[in-house]
Amino acid sequence: MAFASHEEYFASVPADSRLQLQSIQEKVEAQVSGASRCISYNMPAFKRDRVFFYFAAFKKHIGIYPPVTQDARLMQELAPYRGEKGNLSFPLKEALPIELIGRVALALSQEYGCK
Length: 115
Known about the structure:
By secondary structure, the protein is α+β, with helices and mostly antiparallel strands.
């Protein structure tokens, strides 16, 4: 199924995942002024000039893409959540580190030169 909006995507996932996705959405919008919602690669995403942040729900985790590559200190904090390609994976059974995710969104918007 191709999704047309964040809300349509959220409606397709279990309630516990939906709440986590909504909190990520709220945090990104609060952290990155001028970020707008979009769907890219059939996932909820944010853009500001270009797409800089993707997030999605999976069976056992919430994924955030692409990897942060230019903030060494933040990358070190993200180490427990990083997969082999650097993408982030937050287990559904753990509390979502929403403040950390907000910092990821801000870092990615800067990495991707969003003005």
